[in-house]
Design brief:
The protein has 147 residues and is of the alpha+beta class. The chain is built from two helices and ten strands.
Length: 147
């Protein structure tokens, strides 16, 4: 009887630890970032505000969700992996700016040397073809050392 009780507590303890680790990993991936300008994700324009940017599903990181803090505005976007030579100290959102239009282009998470690059929407490709000058804007939040 003691052995069964001990076994149950061991399993329960392991489940609690795995849940806590999973929740922490999820919170690291879904930091809220204030984006101070309207921006385009895929074919959708999103208003300035607080957003989370994270994989749409935990087990599949090709499709990412960009969602306003209140959950009222969102967009799904297909991404491709990108590697960096150095570990990122902060979570970064990279935007391409053409005139007054901002396009979310890349996401990298604090503490890693990889990120996700968004496929360029048709609208951005057209602006690039017109030789409109492109600026790069990087918004960074959090740090790899914070938990």
């Amino acid at each position: 009887m003691k052995r069964q009780t001990l076994s149950r507590f061991t399993i329960l303890g392991a489940l609690l630890v795995m849940t806590a680790v999973s929740a922490r990993a999820q919170s690291e991936r879904s930091k809220v970032t204030n984006i101070p300008f309207n921006f385009i994700v895929g074919q959708k324009t999103l208003p300035a505000g607080d957003y989370t940017v994270e994989p749409y599903r935990r087990d599949y990181d090709k499709v990412w969700l960009v969602q306003s803090r209140d959950g009222q505005t969102s967009a799904l976007v297909i991404t491709i992996p990108v590697r960096f030579s150095e570990t990122r100290e902060k979570t970064e959102l990279v935007f391409h700016k053409y005139g007054d239009q901002h396009f979310l282009a890349q996401v990298s998470l604090a503490g890693g040397n990889s990120g996700r690059e968004l496929l360029r929407p048709r609208q951005e490709k057209e602006l690039a073809k017109k030789m409109i000058e492109r600026q790069t804007i990087v918004l960074a939040t959090g740090s790899a050392g914070r938990h």
